[in-house]
Structures are given as C-alpha cells and as structure tokens.
Design a protein that fits this description.
Strand content: 5-15%
Strand order of the largest sheet: 1-2
Structural class: mainly alpha
Distance between the termini: 85 Å
Oligomer: single chain
Shape: globular
Length: about 150
C-alpha cells in the first residue's frame, strides 16, 4: 500500500464529506484549534473516516497501537487543516489555472460549492424566545375552515 496515495484518498473523502455536510458540521460544537489550525475535532474526523474508508478500519488498530493520540493520527493522515480555508485555496488556485490558459475539463461534481456560513442561520434571540416564537407560529394555524363559514357570536 502506498501511504501517500492512501493519505490523498482519505483527504479527498474527508473534503467531499465536509462539502456535502458543511451546514450542520459548522454548527456543531466540535471545532478545535490544533497546532494553529481550526478544524473539527480529531475524534469527529476519525469517526467519519472510519465510515467512509474501509481500509482505515483495518489500519486503525495498528495505528492506535503506535499512537493513541487522535491529534497525532489526524496529523499523520495529513488532515490537520481548516477545511474551509483549504477549499478556498483550492478554488483560488483552480481559477488562477483557468485564467492562465491551463483549462482542463471539469465536471459538475468537481466544482466546489460553498454554502452560506453557519452564522446566517443563527439568531440573536435566546433559545427560550425562539421556541416561544415557533410555538406561537404553530398555534396560529387556523385550519381549513374559512372565516365566513364559522358561526358568529351574538
């Protein structure tokens, strides 16, 4: 097994997964700073990759025997980076290559898609007020009967 190819495969699978699930991953409280890089926790990355990469499941017992520090394992797999910054850098270098005439055919799947930041989904209201507003909206449902067909009060 070529370790460099394995690292590239794992990195690609992690980034593909991150792009597809960025909205909810960004909202989880799993973000850490490790060696100056802001990224999801090592445990989250390793758990995700164990589901995505069958070879990693076979290698993890050996890897854990060598080092049981999840941060060191993630670093050894070349995954100690901020996925958002990495994806922006890849997109920027791709656009430079296109501008320099190094045009290559890309498919829709190859294109990077950036979703709005998690902060655009957040509100300044406390959780109790948000749930109160949601219940008011839910309770305001008037059903299928129109106002005209309801009996009038005398």
């Amino acid at each position: 097994m070529n370790t460099q190819q394995f690292r590239q495969s794992v990195k690609k699978k992690w980034l593909d997964y991150y792009v597809e699930n960025r909205v909810w991953i960004a909202r989880l409280q799993i973000w850490v700073n490790c060696d100056g890089q802001r990224r999801p926790s090592s445990s989250f990355i390793l758990a995700t990759l164990s589901a995505l990469e069958p070879q990693l499941n076979q290698l993890l017992p050996l890897i854990v025997d060598l080092s049981n520090n999840p941060d060191r394992i993630v670093a050894a797999l070349d995954l100690n980076f901020n996925p958002d910054e990495h994806l922006k850098a890849v997109a920027k270098s791709s656009s430079k290559a296109l501008n320099n005439g190094n045009v290559k055919q890309t498919t829709a799947k190859d294109a990077l898609k950036f979703l709005p930041a998690a902060s655009s989904y957040e509100t300044d209201l406390p959780t109790s007020q948000v749930s109160h507003l949601i219940s008011k909206i839910d309770e305001s449902c008037e059903g299928g009967r129109s106002q005209r067909s309801q009996p009038t009060k005398s």
